[in-house]
Amino acid sequence: NSFTYKIKSHWLFWWNELVDPALIEKGTAPAPTASVMMPQHWTEYVLDGEKLPPKGYATYAIKLVLPDNAIYGMYLDHMVTAYRLFINGVEVASNGKVSKDLSKMKNEFRHQTVYFAPKDNIAWCVLHISNRDYRTAGMWQPIVIGKARAILSHYNSIIIRDLFLFGAILIIGLYNIALFIFRTKDRAPLWFGLFCLTVCARILATGSTTISNMFQGFPWELQIKMELGVFYLGGLFFGMFFHEVYPLEIKIKHLRFFN
Asked: What is the DSSP string of 137-192?
């Protein structure tokens, strides 16, 4: 009862279709486009000799045969950029707004846990996913499934890990900035402190307690900038830190890559 499992398996896949979950469960849905391995970006799928574009929408479906009809849970990680999850025809989770008209869809990114009871040991999982703005699309982290108590424990352990990392890195960052304030001639602590703060911003943008979980309606574009900023601002701050520590070996011209 304490075990969790990552769903890494083949799913039925319909490209540019949002198939009614009831039709899939009854076996009367249109023929799927392909059977695909998940998790994987759909931009890696090849249809008619070409890779699928990032913009579009799709349906995924898998039939799970479970050992009993107890209460189960799922932990949902990264999916871009909007989705709806149905289990046995009932919508149990969503992120943003899925739409065939991509101009009307709404981007969002939040980690979620959901709980459900299978019917006759069967759980039909159907995902509707749409993407307009991100460079890749689909689900790149597996759904984690287990008994309700196991999923709750799994989610709590992830929260504890992320909060510990955030708190530890934040304290280190603020400590180094405080060192600079009291001794401004040495700028190395300033750059290292700013690097730590960019890492904290990324944890807020991507961790289990994302800023969009804390503030409903937080701008998705800003969240993505916080996620990716560590590779640009963070790299620049870390480079400046090493320049201050090793000025003869690492010169400013070596950091022009970040301009």
From this structure: -EE-SPPEEEEHHHHHHHHHHHHHHHHHHHHHHHHHHHHHHHHHHH-TT--HHHHH
pTM value? 0.86
**Cβ 2 vs Cβ 150: under 8 Å:** yes
| Cβ neighbours of 88 (radius 10 Å) | 18
Question: Residue 93 in 3-state DSSP?
Answer: strand
Gap between the Cα atoms of 203 and 198, Å rounded: 9
The Cα–Cα gap between 182 and 1 comes to 54
With contact defined as beta carbons under 8 Å apart, do 71 and 79 qualify? no
Q: Using 50, 70 and 90 to split pLDDT, how confident is the model at 119?
A: very high
Average model confidence (pLDDT) across the chain: 90
How many CB atoms neighbour CB 158 within 10 A?
Answer: 18
Using only the alpha carbons of the chain, give its radius of gyration.
Answer: 22
The DSSP secondary structure of 14-54, one letter per residue, reads: EET----HHHHHHT-SPPPSEEEEESEEGGG-EETTEEPPS
pLDDT of residue 226: 83
Q: Is the confidence at residue 176, as pLDDT, over 60?
A: yes
Q: Is the pLDDT of residue 111 over 70?
A: yes
Q: Which amino acid is at 144?
A: V
Q: What's the pLDDT at 256?
A: 67
DSSP string, 122-137: EEEEEEEEEESSSSS-
